Amino acid sequence: MIELENVSKSFTLHNQGSAVIPVMAGASLRVKPGECVALTGASGAGKSTLMRVIYGNYLAASGRVMVGDLDVAQAEPREILALRRETLGYVSQFLRVVPRVPTLEVVADPLLAVGVEKEAALDKAADLLSRLNIPKRLWSLSPTTFSGGEQQRVNIARGFAHEYPAMLLDEPTASLDATNRATVLSLIEEAKARGAAIVGIFHDVEARERACDREIDVSVFTPEMAA
Ligand SMILES: Nc1ncnc2c1ncn2[C@@H]1O[C@H](COP(=O)(O)OP(=O)(O)OP(=O)(O)O)[C@@H](O)[C@H]1O
C-alpha cells in the first residue's frame, strides 16, 4: 500500500548561498495493508522528512513514493489533494482548523468530504469524541479555545473518522493521559484490523511496541550511510 523505492531528498538553503544539504538517499520501505511500521532513529535522522515526503509536502529529488496506485513524487497537486481526501490520512499531535467551526463538524468533515451522508458522519464524529473523552458540552464549540490536550484529542478523532487505507501518525500518543493513550492505541489496532497500512513516529516506546509490527531506523538512509 505504501512503497518507497530509492528515495532521496535534499534541501536547498536559498538564504545561505543556495547550499544544498542532502538529508536522505536510497530510502526504500514497503508497508502492507494491516501493517504498522515505526520510523526510528536519532533526532535529525530524517523521520519527519520521510513522513512529509510520503504526504507530498516535500518533493523527493528522486525515487518512487507509491501510495496505492499514485506515485506522490510525480503527482499533480490535484492528485495529491484527492489522495489526502480519500486514501492517505495524517494524524499529528496538533490541530489546525478553520476558526468558528463546531468541534462535531471539525471531526465529521473528512467523512463529508468523501460523500458520507451528514447524519452518519455526525454519528461517527460523536462516537469518536465520546471515546476520546471530549465532554458533550464542548461539541458545539470551536476547538480553537480548547486546552492543548483537548485539541490533540479532537485532532485524533478527526484523523480516524474516515477509514483511510493508509495513514501517517506523527506522535499521536504524545502527552496524552493513560486512558486516552489506550484509546488511541485501540484506534490504531482497529485501523490495522480493517487493513490500513500505517507509518508512524512514536517516541513512546511502549506505544510503539504495542501498535507497530516492525521498526525502520531511518539513519540507514542518511546520505553518508547509503553512499
Ligand atoms: N525545511 C528544511 N530545510 C532544511 N533542512 C531541513 C528541513 N527539514 C528538515 N531539514 C533537515 O533534515 C534533517 C532531518 O530532519 P527531520 O526533522 O526529518 O528529523 P527527525 O528524525 O524527524 O528529528 P526529530 O526526532 O528531532 O523530530 C535535519 O538535519 C534537518 O535539519
UniProtKB/TrEMBL annotation:
Superkingdom of source: Bacteria
Natural source organism: Phaeobacter gallaeciensis
Transmembrane spans: none
Name of the gene this protein is made from: phnL
Keywords tagged on the record: ATP-binding, Lyase, Nucleotide-binding
Alphabetical list of InterPro entries matching this protein: AAA+_ATPase, ABC_transporter-like_ATP-bd, ABC_transporter-like_CS, CP_lyase_PhnL, P-loop_NTPase
Family: Belongs to the ABC transporter superfamily.
GO molecular function: ATP binding; ATP hydrolysis activity; lyase activity
Ranges for domain ABC transporter: 2-226
Name used for this protein in its record: Phosphonate C-P lyase system protein PhnL
